[in-house]
Write a structure and sequence with these properties.
Distance between the termini: 82 Å
Strand content: 5-15%
Number of helices: 12
Shape: globular
Radius of gyration: 24 Å
Order of helices and strands: HHHHHEHEHEHHHHHEE
Number of strands: 5
Strand order of the largest sheet: 2-1-3-4-5
Length: about 240
């Protein structure tokens, strides 16, 4: 009987300690600010420079295997009423370069525009104008990548239905890079970088709306390259 009483006492003691201990919040168990989202205030408080720094830090976390924990469904609910992305990333459609993952960003953080060869056309420009002028994004990023199939196709002057016209948009970068082969990965990277710079040039020249924001300093424009073998994003010098 005494042993039973002692056992019951220990149970009540454990329950009392548990009740008096502070409950862990969801954010504490899954990582700091796991459900945090971009707001109108946080977006307005950013600059092109701070937006770029946020992307750089995110890619560093990705490469170092230190990505933030996120409550994805909580972010779905929190962003349902509106969105305030701080950056726009024009990237290739390549399945090995998912924008939010490689920059360690969550739902509602960045606008993603993906098209083979990260080329610029009227639809891309219109999307960027909406993102910056209407929604308030602070930074435009053109993201190329190594071993790009679209770049290789353009180097080889491939012909295939509507793809022919798309690849033709990369040809200026091929011409600017001099002679080379699609089997030479260093040359493919060289053309991919030239293609990023070509896209940046077209964004500025073909969109007066964006050019005005760039000239005013309210929006930034940067080029970058993603290495599909390491996960690292390198931002190109001006």
């Amino acid at each position: 009987m005494r042993r039973t009483t002692l056992g019951v006492g220990l149970v009540f003691f454990a329950l009392a300690v548990s009740a008096s201990a502070p409950a862990q919040t969801s954010a504490e168990t899954t990582g700091k600010n796991a459900a945090a989202i971009q707001t109108a205030e946080s977006q307005a408080g950013m600059t092109p420079v701070s937006a770029l720094e946020k992307l750089k830090k995110g890619n560093t976390r990705f490469v170092e295997k230190n990505m933030r924990s996120r409550e994805w469904l909580a972010k779905v609910s929190a962003t349902a009423a509106g969105q305030y992305p701080f950056a726009v990333v024009l990237a290739c459609m390549d399945s090995r370069a998912p924008i939010e993952i490689i920059f360690d960003q969550g739902i509602g953080d960045v606008f993603g525009i993906r098209i083979a060869g990260n080329i610029v056309n009227e639809d891309v420009l219109g999307s960027m104008e909406y993102a910056t002028k209407v929604v308030g994004s602070k930074l435009l990023v053109v993201l190329g990548h190594t071993s790009c199939g679209a770049v290789k196709g353009s180097i080889d002057d491939a012909k295939l239905g509507n793809l022919t016209e798309l690849l033709a948009k990369i040809r200026p970068a091929v011409s600017a890079s001099g002679p080379g082969s699609s089997k030479d990965e260093a040359y493919v990277t060289k053309v991919a970088e030239a293609n990023v710079r070509q896209a940046m040039k077209e964004i500025r020249e073909k969109s007066p709306t964006i050019k005005a924001q760039l000239d005013a300093g309210t929006v930034g424009l940067v080029g970058s390259m993603y290495d599909v073998s390491t996960g690292k994003v390198t931002f190109l010098p001006d």
